[in-house]
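The records we work with from here on pair a chain with its fold. Taken together, the tokens spell out the fold as the letters spell out the chain. To see the layout at work, look at the sequence and tokens printed below.
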Amino acid sequence: MSKLLRAFDTALADMVVPAHASKPRRIGAAPSGARGAVPSTHAHLWALADGTGLHAPLGQLVEDPQTSRLCCHLCGRWFRSLGSHVRSHGYTADGYRKTMSLLLTRPLVSAELSTDIARRQARSYRDSAQVRERFADSQQRARTGQLAWRARVGNINSRQRLERIRTSRAQLETGRSTQARRRADALTARLAARDAGDLHAFLRREYAAGASLESLARATGLGRARLREALSAAGVMPRPTGHNTPTGKRSRALTADTAAAAAVGTDDLHRWLMDRYAEGWPLTRLAAAVGHSTHWVRWRL
């Protein structure tokens, strides 16, 4: 990954001409004699190879997360959709994408507007047989991988891949944040169901009562590595493998008895086993009924 990031930075540096390499121009400023110059307070930070000043870096469509608006590279103004606006600069949407090294499939709209459009299109596709028929061929090519392959071939040597790298990285970070938030919410709900508001206090109390790592993992939904990290943060030293306290043994035996009794629908597991055994049930049948081994059933009898 570090090699990829260094290559990315090197490629971006080759593509973007720093503003200090030439005389700075104000945001929105036009070349000498041009009309429609927009006064501003600071110089361009980026520029095309021909010296045209830019208000956003090449290969990146800058969006304000608070207003969900996109920055125009050429004039620095903000819009929910750039598709029609770029015509005022003499560009088509495709021409703007190529000049700014954006993905050719990248919609020139904000993420919020793009989501709304995608939702409407999905509803139209679901409700209209005519629309489904129109996209049948494209869907077939997508299922067979032809579209993905053509996109890869078309972008493998193009500058648009820089935005693809940046976009993929942003999506990955967003996914990680979402997963972390969901895990935290699930853990909070699990602890609340057990009248425990603090994870560390819960772990100290349950482990001191003899709970095993497996039972704590089920109760909290934490994986083995994350559970051990939480135990360490709570000041709990896990017992060595094979070492069981008397309290822990009793706790696990009670848990096993409760689960077996629930499996056969009785409140008195020992009496149920004795009655079935008196009726002639073999140990294998009893073991299958309660979900344990024949050795466990023989011990209970």
